[in-house]
Amino acid sequence: MEIKLDNDVLNDQILEATKKLNLVPKDQLLGIQWDINEFHKRCCLNKSGNWVRTCIFYRYPETLIENGGFVIAPHKTPGIKGTSINAYEATRWMQDHFSEIDWSEKLAV
Asked: Which of 8, 34, 38, 63 sits a CA distance of 20 to 30 A from 87?
């Protein structure tokens, strides 16, 4: 027995399930750049930008663009207005390393 599915109906159902599960399709993050504020809200439990720079970017140098990572200018850099983060690569890295990060760490005052 063969069942034929209407591709439009199937695609609509997949998109509806994606929204219901709060999933973000890969193509919606490709080419998207976040600033530090958007990144810390979306991926870092809303920790401060300074906390993210210290406890993630400096602690994990593989996140830096010069090391093949996803962060451009994690600190003030001459000629660059601010930190830029590749959303797709950042979310993939955060998914793989989330449990390694000490989310209760306090910054030295």
From this structure: 8
Q: What is the DSSP letter of 31?
A: T
Strands 33-34 and 84-86 come out as antiparallel
Task: Report the predicted TM-score, pTM, of the whole model to 2 decimal places.
Answer: 0.70
The more confident residue out of 70 and 78 is 70
Q: How far apart are CA 73 and CA 76, in angstroms?
A: 7
Identify the residue whose tokens are 């991926």.
43
Amino acid (1-letter code) at residue 41: K
User: Do the Cβ atoms of 25 and 18 come closer than 8 Å?
Assistant: yes
User: Tokens standing for 86?
Assistant: 């590749």
